[in-house]
Amino acid sequence: AWLSQYVGARSLGLGGAFVAMADDASATFWNPAGLSMLVPNELRFETARLFEDTSVSSFVFAVPGNRLPSFGLSVVTLRSGNFERTNAMNDPLGTFSEGETAYLFTMARNVNARLALGVSGKLIRQSVEDFSGTGYGLDVGGIFDVTPTLRVGVSVLNVARPGITLRDTKETYPTEFRAGFSLATLRGRGLLTAELDQAQGPGMRLRGGTEYWVQPSFALRVGMSDQQMGGGFGPDSIISLFPEV
């Protein structure tokens, strides 16, 4: 869940309803087809402090395509704080930590003027104390412009499901389906977006958000995900009222 629920600043402000609006380098996480909408090269770095010294960081580099497909390279890392190690008598034996890192390579291509498709291959590595394991997976996605203002997006995460064995038991990432739309309003200054996610474990989740560009470089955002609200301002900055983590 740490990887499938990863959110950036703008997407969190929109309640996580980003599958049809993934028009920047963060599309590598939401919908790989979104890389086809890139205009300039893009380099992104984000980090967030969660709880008990846990943090998540991401690095994304994306290049728009011309004759070749658009491509992106992403690295996401989740790191815990230190946990106390004890024996059967509860005597302290030092500390240990847990970490997970995902490497994604994404390609996207416009099939025609209205349809784009994308695919992400990913390598995931997890380590706990002295144990570590590696898994491989695949995501696919598509974006279709129904009208100049209405866009629909669909993505399937873990079509090929990564499986990681740390010691004896193999843990497999679940497949997750996402579908949604985005509607431009107010001559491009406003945006309405909604998304429905379905995955094993969390079940079905509904997300929605709205965005209004006060100036070309400054926007206001409000979103909701499963009755958890968020909001933000600026091109990519965020204030989260009730974050999911």
List keywords for this structure.
59% strand, 245 residues, single chain, 4% helix, 17 strands, two-stranded antiparallel ribbon, mainly beta, 13-stranded antiparallel beta sheet, globular
Task: Kindly describe this structure.
By secondary structure, the protein is mainly beta. Helices cover 4% and strands 59% of the residues. The protein has helices at 9-13, 27-30, and strands at residues 42-49, 55-63, 70-79, 83-86, 92-96, 98-110, 115-128, 131-145, 150-160, 163-165, 170-172, 176-185, 190-199, 203-215, 218-225, 228-233, 238-239. The strands form three sheets. Strands 1-2-3-6-7-8-9-12-13-14-15-16-17 form a 13-stranded antiparallel β-sheet. A two-stranded antiparallel sheet has the order 4-5. Strand 8 (131-145) and strand 9 (150-160) form a beta hairpin. Residues 237-245 have low confidence and may be disordered.
Tell me the radius of gyration.
19 Å
End-to-end CA span: 11 Å
Number of strands: 17
Share in helix: under 10%
Task: Write the element-wise H/E pattern from the N-terminal end onward.
Answer: HHEEEEEEEEEEEEEEEEE
Task: Show unreliable segments.
Answer: 237-245
- Class computed from helices, strands and strand pairing: mainly beta
Sheet of most strands: 13 strands, antiparallel
